[in-house]
Amino acid sequence: MRSSASEIVARARFLSIIFVIAALLLSAQLYIVQIIHGEAYRERARGQYVERSRDSLERSDIYFTELSGSLIAAAVMQSGWRLVIVPRDIEEPDVLYEKLSAITSLDRERFFASAAKKNDPHEEVAIRLDDDTASAIRRMRLPGVLLAPDKWRYYPGHELAAHAIGFVGYRGDDRVGVYGLERFYEKTLARIGSGLYVNPFAELFMNIGAALSRDPASNEGDVITSIEPQVETRLEHTLDTVVSTYAPKFAGGIVMDPKTGEIIAMAVRPTFDPNTYGTADTTDLFLNPLVENVYEMGSIMKPLTVAAGLDVGAISQRTTYEDRGCITRSGKTICNYDKKARGIATMQQILNQSLNLGATFIAERVGHNVFREYVHAFGLGEKTGIDLPSEARGRVDTLDGNYEVDLASASFGQSIAMSAIGMTRALGALANDGVLPSPHMAKSVRQESGVVRALSVAEGPRVLKSETVSEVSNMLVEVFDTSLLGGILKEEHHTIAAKTGTAQIAIPGGGGYYPDRYLHSFFGYFPAHEPRFIVFLLAVEPKGVEFASASLAKPFHEIAKFLINYYDIPPDR
Questions:
Q1: Paired sense of beta strands 442-447 and 497-506, if any
Q2: At 207, which helix (H) or strand (E)?
Q3: Which residues of 520-547 are buried (b: 16+ CB within 10 A; e: fewer)?
Q4: Distance in angstroms (rounded) separating the CA atoms of residues 72 and 77
Q5: 197-254 pLDDT, tens per residue?
Q6: 78-154: what fold?
């Protein structure tokens, strides 16, 4: 009897386990059908349905992240209808055209050309119809007329962060991400499956596999970015003012958290609306010059030169040198921007007055080989690895030779070139206790199951000592407080470390520099010793202004004040 009772208990337990597993699978399948695929099934059930066109798109979404943590749609799928006709079922094309065109806009030539193709099973004559229009057509019960569910990519912010988000376009016959995050995260955003039904066992294990995978971006899901829409809007408004005032070829800006490397805002002017990218005059407008182009950045290189000198002990803040206004190196004349001598000058004066000869003095004290090592350590000769396509690698190979003029020029930001994001990362080391940040836009991926997984970001290398960073930051605060525009921008309760850059633009083909074309740059971070943000601004060939202090200092200050107030950054002095 005991053996029989044990067998009964064992069977009961086994059956209980089976029932529990079945219940779990049924619950999982109901969740998949009602929650994950619910909208898709509802859409399929509505109205008449014909074969989905290759133009129809299935794709995950991209989101901005507000300061509050709320997600704001940056790129989503929008649903509607396609108007399809069956030519062989249409007896009076003229009458049908009049009835349909009274409800929605139709291309007359396209409609009649399609209606004439009697051997074709169906022809699309209109796309992207809303529900109201589709309902009106459906109520008319017109022979030979069908409505097919349609989806397309929509960008609710229109121009907002367009160069960062990118857009979906054609590559051959396929619709894929072709610029920006849309392209970089194509494997994450593209939904490969063509059907709605998946075996519940298979889907359950697929979701488990996605949740456990090392790289969340390798699985389908929504991309959640660190772009804050209010900051992005303010940056773009500021750039619009720069463009309207100085008419540069282009202007751009980056706002980054130097501790995490998260890009809070990135903008370029001129820009475009990704919803109507086909109306752009040239595809060059879609390229992101902050990532894909390199430039000689000018005097914003000087803080890095000072940092290298302090870091190796070649100089101290008490070091002085004799400034003669102009010197000769490798048979070339190098001068301060105004060609004036300063006599005995200090290291602080090098930054305050942006003295080219002072930067040359430091680089020569450091030594050619060691200075080159610092340039490479700052990452200026490589890509940052930012999650945007077609990033350009910096060009610093002029330092591989032993020419004195190249060392001198590089010390104040000429003869070497790098991208704006590359320069922002290098300067970010000053705002991150000497460690290079890792710039990135995507924070996490929300997988189809609803699980949100953070994307891992590798910590950059340490390139400067903490004490070096502290000294340089103090010097840059002095620049902002006293020298920049005579000190009129000084914030009473917040320290800001900042520097301008005005670079000559090289003539293509090695013909020297244009005498009247400049690149203006500006960077700053704050609060200076516990930085929350680093801001980088760039304007290429601004008109009617020679120095970046005149064109970009006030725009930078406007952004800095906005960030201090918006993020409620506490005073540090």
A1: unpaired
A2: helix 200-212
A3: bbbbbbbbbbebbbbbbbbbbbbeebeb
A4: 14
A5: 455 554 444 455 555 556 667 789 999 999 999 999 999 999 999 999 999 999 999 9
A6: Penicillin-binding protein 2a (Domain 2) (3.90.1310)
**Residue boundaries of the structural domains of the chain:** 78-154, 229-275+286-566
Query: How many Cβ atoms sit within 10 Å of the Cβ of residue 418?
Result: 29
How far is residue 119's CA from residue 388's CA, in Å, rounded to a whole number?
46
Phi then psi for 228, rounded to 5 degrees?
Answer: -95, 120
Task: Identify which of 372, 341, 370, 375 has the alpha carbon closest to the alpha carbon of residue 357.
Answer: 341
Residue 289 tokens, joined = 């010059």
Residue 13, C-beta contacts closer than 8 angstroms, at least 6 positions apart: none
CATH architecture of 229-275+286-566: 3-Layer(aba) Sandwich (3.40)
Q: For the chain, give the number of residues.
A: 573
Closest C-alpha among 411, 410, 417, 403 to residue 321:
411
Question: For residue 270, is the peptide bond before it cis, meaning its omega torsion is within 30 degrees of 0?
Answer: yes
At residue 27, the pLDDT reads 63
Phi, psi of 135 (to 5 degrees): -65, -40
Contact 394, 381 (CB under 8 A): yes
The pLDDT value recorded for residue 172 is 82
Rounded distance between C-alpha atoms, residue 539 and residue 535, angstroms? 14
Please, is 206 exposed, middle or buried when counting C-beta atoms within 10 Å of its C-beta (0-12, 13-18, 19+)?
middle
pLDDT at 565: 98
Q: Kindly provide the residue ranges of all beta strands, DSSP E only, lying in 122-165, ordered along the sequence.
A: 123-129, 145-154
Q: What percent of the chain has pLDDT over 90?
A: 77
CA atoms of 106 and 111, how far apart (whole Å): 7
Helix, strand, or coil here: 549?
A: helix
Instruction: Output the 3-class SS for 359-418.
Output: HHHHHHHHCHHHHHHHHHHCCCCCCCCCCCCCCCCCECHHHHCCCHHHHHHHHCCCCCEE
Distance from CA of residue 221 to its chain's centroid? Answer: 18
Do the beta carbons of residue 460 and residue 422 sit within 8 Å? no
Comparing CA positions, the residue from 133, 168, 172 lying closest to residue 275 is 168
Name 513's bridge partners. 506
Q: What is the DSSP letter of 500?
A: E
pLDDT in tens, 464-484: 999 999 999 999 999 999 999
Strand bridging mode 513-526 / 497-506: antiparallel
Of 333-347, 500-514, 518-532, minimum mean pLDDT range: 500-514
Distance between CA atoms of residues 324 and 284, nearest Å? 44
Strand, coil or helix: 420? helix
Radius of gyration, CA atoms only, the chain? 30
CA distances from 551 to 345, 474, 477 (A): 27, 24, 20
Residues contacting residue 264 through CB under 8 Å, at least 6 positions apart: 226, 227, 228, 231, 232, 255, 256, 257, 533
- Residue 324's Cα: distance from chain center in Å? 44
Considering the chain, what is the average pLDDT of its residues?
90
CB neighbours of 100 closer than 8 A, spacing ≥ 6?
83, 106, 111, 125, 126, 137, 142, 145
pTM of the model: 0.86
**Residue 175 or 378, more confident:** 378
